[in-house]
Structure formats: C-alpha cells, structure tokens
Amino acid sequence: MNTNYIFVTGGVVSSLGKGIISASIGKLLQARGFKVTIQKFDPYINIDPGTLNPYEHGECYVTEDGFETDLDLGHYERFTGIHTTRNNSITTGRIYKTVIDRERHGDYLGKTIQVVPHITDEIKRRMLGEGTFDFVITEVGGTIGDIESAPFMEAIRQLRWELGRKAVCVHLTYVPYLKAADELKTKPTQHSVKELQGLGIQPDILVLRTERHLDDHIRMKVASFCNVDLECVVQSEDMPSIYEVPVSMQHQGLDAAIMRKIGIPVGETPAMKSWRDFLDKQRNTTREIHIGLVGKYDLQDAYKSIRESLNLAGIYNDVKAKLHFVNSEELTVQNVSEKLDGLQGIVICPGFGQRGIEGKIIAAEYTRTHDIPTFGICLGMQMMVVEFARNVLGYKDANSAEMNPDTPHNVIDIMEEQKNITQMGGTMRLGAYECELVKGSKSYEAYTSNASRQGGEKSAQLSSNSEALSIVGEKGEGLLTKERHRHRYEFNNAYKAEYEQAGMKCVGINPAADLVEIVEIPDKRWYIGTQFHPEYSSTVLHPHPLFISFIKACK
Ligand code: GLN
Q1: Is 490 a catalytic residue?
Q2: Ligand 1 center from residue 68 Cα (angstroms)
Q3: Which end of the chain has less neighbouring CB within 10 Å, N or C?
Q4: Could you tell me the CA-to-CA distances from 334 to 43, 296, 348, 349, 367 in Å, in that order?
Q5: What's the Cα-to-Cα distance from 529 to each of 347, 358, 386, rounded to whole Å?
Q6: pLDDT for 388-424, tens place per residue?
C-alpha cells in the first residue's frame, strides 16, 4: 500500500486548533476520494485520558471499540465520519508501557533500553499504523519545545528521512496582533520554525493562526524566513464556526499543496456539496433557542461533544441552539425556577461522584413537573431515575449505589461485572453495545421518523445512511442500534415493573445483558434519558437522531 503521512505539529502556544486543522485536512483529502485516518499522539504519561479530571483535559471521548481518548478524536469523527479506534489515540504512557512490558518479557535481552532507539522505534511503529490508508494524519499534542514531546519529534524526523516525499510536515503557529503597535507579528512563528529546524524537521506547510487577515506581504515574509513556498503558507483566521475551516483551507489550496509536495496530480477541486449545503444552512439560521446544560464542570471543553451535537441538531432544525451552563452545585429548590425559566430545553449532563447530583435531581423534578423537554445522558439519565423514585414511587431515600452504597432503594445499582473491579483505568463498561428500541416509543420514533431524517430533502439524503445512525438492523418488533457507553452503574431491573406502571418506560434494552439503556415518560413532551452517550456518534453530516428529535421538541 502506498500510504502517505502527514504530521501536524504546533508552536508558540497551545489551543491553536491543531485538531480542527487535522480534521479539516482529513475531510479535504476524503473529498478527493482518498482513504484517510487521523491519529493523535499525546505527550502525557497517563495511559489514556480516562482517569483525567475534565478540568485537566476536557471531555473524554469514547471510541466504538471502547477506548477512552482525547477530545480531538471527536473532531476527527464529526468532520470525517471516520470511526476511530484505540489505535487512533496514543500517549507517552502507552508507548513506555509497551516498551517496559517487552523488556520485562525479555524481548530485548542484553540490551540497554533507551529513549532512542527503543522509545522512538515504538512511536514510529505506531505512527506508521497498520491499516490500509492513502493518508495517515498524525497530530502531535503539545507545543514545539516541550521536553515531553521531544521523542515524538525525533520519531517524525527519522520517518521523514525514511519516507522521503511520502511524508509531509504541517506546522501550526500563531501570529499575534499588537494593538499598541497596530501590527501583526511574525517573530514568534520564525522562532517556532527555528526550534523545529533545530530538531531536524523542516516544515513543508505553515498554517498561521490569526485573529486578523494576513496580507501577502506577511505571508511572503514568513515564507522567506522559514524556507517554505509562498503557496504553502496558509492562514487560519477566526471563523464564526469551526466547520467553515475545511472550506477556507480548500480555498487557500492546503490540500493541493500537500498533494504537490507528495507528487500526486492535483486535479479538480472537489465541490463538497453536502458540506457546503450544511454551511449554507448554518449561515442562514438566525432563530435562537435556549438550552440549559445542567452539570458541574464550568468549562466549555468538558461537554464538548454534547455542545457540538446540540449545535448541529439545531442547524438541521433551522435554529441556533444557544447553550447556557447551569451549575448543578448551585441549584436549589428555591432558585430552580429562576435558573431554568426561559430555557426551552434542558440537558442533564454525564458525570461521576456525589458533587452536584442533588442539583441534577432538582432539575429533573422541575422539568418533569413543568413538562420542559429534558435529555438526561448517562449520569443525567440515572438522576432522572432517582428523582422519579423519590417523588413518584415514594422512595424518599432512593439513590444510586455510586452515591450511597447502603441506600435501601438502589434504583441505580452497580453492574454485576463491575463489583470486583479495583483497577480504575479502562475498566468501565466502555464502547458500543446493542440497544433494542421498543416500537411505538418516542425514542423509536426519533430513530425512525422523518423528523430524525431531518428537515428538507438534502438532509434526508444525508441521514439515509443507516450506518451513520448506528442502526444495525431490526429485531422482532423493535429496532436494533449500537451506542457508545462509559459507566459502572445501571438501572436496577428489580424496580422495572414499578417504574413502568407509574409511567416511566424502559424503551431501550441491551438484549445480551438485559440492561436498560433508555427510559422515557411518554406522557411528557420529551423526557428521555439514555444510559449511553449519543453525543459520541453525532457528526456534521449525520447528527444523532435523539438530538435532532430533542431540539425539535424544544423549538
Ligand atoms: N457515574 C455514572 C456511572 O458510572 C455515570 C457515568 C457517566 O455519566 N458517564 O455509571
């Protein structure tokens, strides 16, 4: 297989949007008919971000094969529709663990194990990957000059040398605007490229992040100081939406520049019709609706995929979803109406641990009794269930066993297979499991109705791809889907009959283990909780049907 490799690094500062640029390159090459994959290499020592507090590293994104990964993989999937796996997210910790395990196994008998070549060889092996792709895009986390990313840079330097023209280095830097001088400054970019050159890597393409438009004079200056062709200096200006980035990069010829570097005939520029249709729809959407996110992490990135899923579902419903964070730790019976009034829908967010859960329960009660569309996700669903037990079934002390292991009414209980687990990393019920939807339920309707096939003919065509909706087939009366999970606790089936009798229905069941995956109250406008995370499988061209249907109910 004649695979080509694109390495994406960043300099000057973090948060330049390397993930968005990597995803955009992936999208543009896909549009040219290439088979592409994107992987992220993170320099930290954790094996995966699963054990990290979201304040450290934002949301933890879960792949279908049950790996806890960096949130950039969410961008890759949303932009390209690729289904990533554990091979797409690598950390220094994983690299070292592989090498150390091998050493203990005796595989290097007699040798001294060193960063070069043993660690760098393992990095290179993973960078080259295993699949059959036309392009493998590798994004390296962190900033050039960081001590911990040095082995990754050395691996790229070596691969570059070995692969010749089949490897292209794209470097992102920042061009700050100094207000007092009224000038855009290229010096940080020059320094960053020097740093990279000092590591033996000459970038082929520079992407300059900027808040102001850079004229040709500045691009020429950067090109000549950094030994890069002028056509290979592109700019990434602030955009009203991240989904505009691929089109802007295509307009500046980023994909064409990559192909020329490798020596592939460039050919015609792809139209990317469905993507552009989506952008048109986004630009023309003006009507706003207001959605509350009840959670404990006051940080945009903590609920990244939920935010993006709501935004996307909004656009397909012709509304701009304005999201408002509602801190669950500050919600009380006294202030709940003041905090939630004016919001057309509420999402009760996932999470772990005691902090903020009483606020989630208060929100669930308020929206249930006031019939405000409500979407509970994972812990959010569990708190809907606890609230229902306390206030409808009359079990005042009902709780999740996570919060109170001794509760007499453990309506949410630890899963059997989780009981003896002592290792915390990577041991939850993770990844895609089947869910059978009960025919006639609101959830079933969401997955099958025209509403979820989205407004307009163009969208209908977008979602006719059932794979994207994770629908895997029909089963008896129901419909079988596959959804991604990340949890240890679960609806307690001992209470199922009572719930159903009192009006909360279990309408999504995992057939293999008889686990409740979806609850809903059919009498309400939209009151649905999912044990799984639909946000992980919502993409730009195929937003998840539950988000589409939720927003439809909100508006
Ligand atoms: N803490 C809950 C559990 O482990 C919910 C997890 C989540 O929201 N992702 O079951």
Answers
A1: no
A2: 14
A3: N
A4: 46, 19, 19, 21, 14
A5: 9, 17, 12
A6: 999 999 999 999 999 999 999 999 999 988 998 888 8
Tally of CB atoms within 10 A around 125: 13
pLDDT digits (tens, 9 = 90+) for 432-463: 999 999 999 999 999 998 544 433 333 333 33
Cβ atoms within 10 Å of 322's Cβ, excluding its own: 14
For the question of residue 290 being annotated catalytic, the response is no
Burial class (CB in 10 A: 0-12, 13-18, 19+), 268: exposed
C-beta 350 within 6 A of ligand 1: yes
Alpha helices in 115-167 (DSSP H): 120-128, 150-163
Distance 416 CA to ligand 1 centre (A): 15
In angstroms, the CA 228 to CA 205 distance is: 7
Catalytic entry in 378, 435, 506, 554: 378
CATH class of 286-414+489-505+516-554: alpha beta
Cβ atoms < 10 Å from Cβ of 212: 13
- Residues of the chain under the 70 pLDDT cut: 1, 450-477
For ligand 1, is residue 27 a contact (CB within 6 Å)?
no
Domain 4-277: which topology? Rossmann fold (3.40.50)
Annotated catalytic residue within 118, 533, 542, 544: 533
Both tokens of residue 4?
């080509």
Q: What pLDDT was estimated at residue 460?
A: 31
Provide CATH 3.40.50.300 ranges for the chain: 4-277
CA–CA dist 156, 278 (Å, integer): 36
CATH 3.40.50.880 segments of the chain: 286-414+489-505+516-554
| Any ligand 1 atom below 6 A from CB of 77 | no
Q: What are φ and ψ of residue 67, in 5° steps?
A: -110, 140
In the reported structure, the alpha carbon of residue 350 is separated from the centroid of ligand 1 by a whole-number distance in angstroms of 6
Which residue has the least CA distance to atom 1 on ligand 1? 352
* Cα gap 70→22, rounded to integer Å: 14
CA–centroid distance for 527 within its chain? 24
Does residue 105 have an active-site annotation?
no
Instruction: Judge if the beta carbon of residue 363 lies within 6 A of ligand 1.
Output: no
Top mutation candidate among 352, 428, 430 for ligand 1, by most atoms within 8 Å of CB: 352
